[in-house]
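Dear support,

We are seeing what looks like truncated structure output for some complexes. This example has two components. We would appreciate it if you could run it in full and send us the complete token output so we can diff it against ours.
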Amino acid sequence: MSRFQYPPNTRTIRVLCTGQVDATYILKALRNGADGVIVIGCRLGECHYIDGNLHARWKVDLVRRMLKRIDISPERTEIKYVSSAEGNKYLEVVNKFISKIKSLGPSPVNTKEDAERLKKMIGILTAAASDYRIRSIIAKKQKLTEIGNVYNEKISKEEFDRFIDEALYEEFIRQTIVTYVKEKPLSCQEIAEKAKLSSSLVLYHITYLRKQNIIDVDRIEGIVPLYKVL
Amino acid sequence: MPEEKHVSRIGVFICSCGTNIAGFVDVVSVTEYAKGLPGVVFAQNNLYSCSESGTQSIKDAIKEYNLNRVVVASCTPRTHEPTFRAACEEAGLNPFLFEFVNIREHCSWVHMHEKDRATEKSKELVRMGVARASLLEPGEMIEVEVARSALVIGGGISGITAATALAEMGINVVLVEKEKELGGLIRALFKLYPVDELASEFLKKNINKLRKQKNADILTSSEIVKIKGYIGNYSVSVKSGNKVKEYEFGTIILATGAASYEPEKTTSKKTLFNYDGRNVITQLQLEKKLSHSSEVSAIKSIVMIQCVGSRVPERIYCSKICCMTAIKNAQIIKEKNNDARVTILYRDLQTYGVEYENELRKAKQAGIRFIRYARDKPPVIDTKKKTVKVYHELLGIEIEQTYDFVVLSTPLVSQPDSLKLSQALKVPIDEHGFFLEAHVKLRPLEFATDGIYVCGCAHWPADITESISQSLGAASKAAIPLICGKVSVEPVVSHVDETKCSGCGICEENCPFGAIKKDSETKKAKVTEVICKGCGICATNCPEEAITIQHYKGNQFAAQIEAAFKEE
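Here is the complete output from our reference environment:
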């Protein structure tokens, strides 16, 4: 890298291609205390493995959407494209990122008061990012928006964004419910209070989760059912 | 691969790299730190790990301390990963149980003025490397036998050149050409630029050279019916007449060439420049006339129009060869009859390099007129009066000229069956139907799919010189696996946990290399390891998280991430 100097604030994890970067890795780094996570890959159209950096881009985009949902700045993660011959561009990218994170301040995960709650939130996001629904939507992005189906039908990028945002919204609620009842059986009302959501919304998703055999009634106290993870 | 429950015995070697690392990082302190890391039973500071003594000390330590994992913290794996892997192997340790931590390019060289923080960073990087090392698994190089023969599809100058080159290397080659004769587009030409050679003589020379090759099997009037397989192991069915024969090939060269665009001749709607094939003809049709000397002398006035059907919205590219073809043919006409009025209407002239620029100068000196026209003011042809009207860009006036013939320089277009062929071979074509190479600069003659190569006009309009160069290049590349006799790849490949796979096919959809497919019997994803590049696309997209990449597994990344931010 031509010995360009930059501050030693970074820790590097080597991947063969940014295509190897799973969304859950970025979330894990943030949960474990990273103030920022930057993914650096080949320039678009120049990926040595053809499409790896494109797929990485969609993973980073997913994580940014997720962070917005829990009030962590989405700017704490980004993807940048640098050719392996552009030493000074790499330096610029890293320095800019370090300054950006410095101005954002330490991650809220590292400040004592909110830490545990936020770590739990990131855990919920990780569960959503490991789940079939979100993964298959992101995996099909190229097919849906660029390649099209056998009838050559495509959906626009805006439609796709709405689609993934809606799915994220629902999956976040569902994973929140699962996370809370995993700790101990809770009623719909108790879950709604903890998650700061309306009871009717929570009930709607409890019904879905029951149908999927993910949670079910543990016992009934008086007239109130308590739910548990199956 | 089953995960071993083993007790790590990790050896860590911190390299000073002379002063490259030791000058900016306290390597002694890092070595002491490494001794205390989980699983580490031995840590040593070497002056130059890559030296004879350095690698020897690694081998000695492996034996003496019964190490089952080795971590070297030094430079970039791009320099010495093979060196250290070989050292491990020589000492009896599987080379994939070796982990490389970069504390030079990633640390000492970029934090030269902050020794304390650089040392702290080095310690953490080593900690991350050790955490990963304990989760590494042994691996074996994946080897595949290669069928020692090559297939060349297409018998034009590209195919002929490639097949001859391969045969001369002692490789068995089969050339498949769908026409009755070899030669492709050149068969329709009269003379070749810039050498002024007769096309028929040129072709005869090259075809004879190929026919003399004992290792070359030439199949004309033949077509590819089916292609299956992967590098080293292509099964191809070829139909000749009504017989179908099966072949096995190691590599394939695509040399299917291009076609010359002929405008439609419908009389109901306006055709391109009133093309009728009689007095308004294409350059290819002119070539046929030029071989008849009397016809040529009879031409009194001829107007050639360049960029007909190319560099327009429907076909934005420049076909490269048409300007030189027009200049060549214009000169032939002028030579036969100096009084003939020869005019070339152009938008821009492609006469690059010394030789072609020379030809342009000669043409102008011979009295051939070059008139520039704008795309939005094309020449207008009156077939009744036999005149051409054109707005002369540089003079700023409209001029009119009578003609015996109008010659349309049309572009080379892709073959009509290129889509079918691209699907059969699983190689991409661009929007114009030309085959798309792996990388325009770094890998111009190959595809992302290993074992298939492309040359000549099948790839992009090319003149004969370029086609020949590309064919020789493609033949060289195609010969490499055949001469080696086998192809071996690092075992950094995908692995599918069939108990988790739901058969959704998303991995197959997303793989750029065609390396993972849904098996027709088991209905689960199956990896063809020799093609897999380990890029990770299938693994990170799999909705069931059923796929892992050997040597770059999720648990290894997790260990590194945890080690990076551990509170001490």
